[in-house]
Amino acid sequence: MFLINELIQYPALIAYLKGYSNYSWIHFSDGRKVLTAKPLCYFEKRLSGFFRSHKTVLVNPYYVESVEAPQRAKMAGSLQLRGGAVLPVGRRRWQALEELLPNLVRPESRLAVRPAKPAATATGQRVLFFTRNEIRGLLIRQLMAEKWPSCTVDIVMTDSALEKYMTRSRNRPSLILLEEDDVSGNGPIGKFKMHPSFGAVPILLLVPSGSPSLVTRAYQFGVSSVVALSADPLHFMRMIEKVFRFWLGFAATLPTPPSVRSTYSGFRVA
Known about the structure:
alpha/beta; 5-stranded antiparallel beta sheet; 9 helices
């Protein structure tokens, strides 16, 4: 038995909702779906960042991958989400969609959605999340936008993109979140620790539960904290929120020891 408040506690986990009379199906990003005895308008009032693309559909815009414009004036358009779901766009709702996703609403366009990033504050707090999991990247971006709108989050998903990111000094983050099983001097951790600008930035490594060898090696390479996660998306969101509350709050006020960079200037772990 699910409680409604628990189901919508982390809107980032929800890809879209479909309404049927006084019932609604909640479709989650991991493929699960739950039937609730609530009409779609109930969720529309509580999920302020979602878009009513059709009288039967409520969409999380972060998951929209492409838009198909109506072929004629009185026809409906469609949205394609990450994961393959195709949802209708009512012709009366097309103008609102143009305002919400202006870079997608062109018949010839197949661009990926790039939600606007919150502007950085005077504190300069910026989080870098390196992951190869697109859905987790979306979850982190939405969590940050909801809970820490004054922070900037950068999602990097490939080694080449990471190399480019690290060459731009203006992108120096205040916290690095890393989901990677290559714990070595040649992997991302080693590259960060050897970099003149990134060497002293706190690194949080995300590892699957039951990976003691990764945990040991991570601390040998100077990782600030290791977070063991299960595959459950809700557990992921709850744990990441706790981690961010600490590192973007209390830990951000602590001074960085001047010797922290030189401590990791060479790696001796095989």
